[in-house]
Amino acid sequence: MLDLRPNCECCDKDLPPDSAEAMICTFECTFCAACVDDVLKGECPNCGGNFAPRPIRPASKLEKYPASTKRVLKAEGCAPKAA
């Protein structure tokens, strides 16, 4: 089951479980759409993979299957990827 991490690993923007801005790679690295497009240019800085929109868990399932509260943030930040 997906963790539904609560923030962007680059800019620390909040990404609640119903956020349409949350993007994930195959390892569930989580970033906001703006960082994926503008900074990372579609490539995960952790694994080199691509991104897909994170699915939205139905509100009716969040009580039984809550989103993660563990924030992950790259201490060194995300360097812009060369175009």
Automatic annotation (TrEMBL):
Domain of life according to the entry: Bacteria
InterPro entries the record matches: DUF1272
Name this protein carries in UniProt: DUF1272 domain-containing protein
